[in-house]
């Protein structure tokens, strides 16, 4: 999966953006021979085309010298974003790493009916649904 496509409160710094997908990197990896960083999936897809050169500088790329970059990943996950339901009215903002936790209370998140009918609806519409 390519980089994160969330609504950031501030445009992510260039060092957080994948040169291949132009989004904030998801599971960033670093090419140790040249230091360039990419989303893991983006780089894997690039390499699957049979090109074993760094997409940034065209230097030979050694597959064994590509490493995860957990420090950069933590910095990216700390970036401030809006809820994916902001256009529907959710006002939540927070760090990207807090988004999944927010979904458990977001009034605009779509959830299945707890009575096991086939309906999926927003959390805020659930009380009306349960009364009918």
TrEMBL record:
Keywords: Metal-binding, Zinc, Zinc-finger. This is RING-type domain-containing protein. PROSITE patterns: ZF_RING_1, ZF_RING_2, ZF_TRAF. It comes from Takifugu bimaculatus. PANTHER family: TNF RECEPTOR ASSOCIATED FACTOR (PTHR10131), TNF RECEPTOR-ASSOCIATED FACTOR 4 (PTHR10131:SF94). Pfam families: zf-C3HC4, zf-TRAF. Residues 102-132 form the TRAF-type domain. Coiled coil: none annotated.
């Amino acid at each position: 999966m390519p980089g994160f496509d969330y609504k950031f409160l501030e445009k992510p710094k260039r060092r957080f953006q994948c040169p291949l997908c132009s989004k904030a990197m998801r599971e960033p990896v670093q090419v140790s021979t040249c230091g360039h960083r990419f989303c893991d999936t983006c780089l894997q897809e690039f390499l699957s085309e049979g090109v074993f050169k760094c997409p940034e500088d065209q230097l030979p790329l050694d597959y064994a010298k590509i490493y995860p970059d957990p420090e950069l990943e933590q910095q990216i996950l700390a970036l401030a974003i809006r809820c994916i339901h902001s256009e529907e009215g959710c006002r939540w903002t927070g760090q990207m790493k807090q988004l999944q936790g927010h979904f458990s209370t977001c009034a605009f998140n779509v959830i299945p009916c707890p009575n096991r009918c086939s309906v999926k609806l927003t959390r805020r519409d659930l009380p009306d649904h349960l009364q009918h």
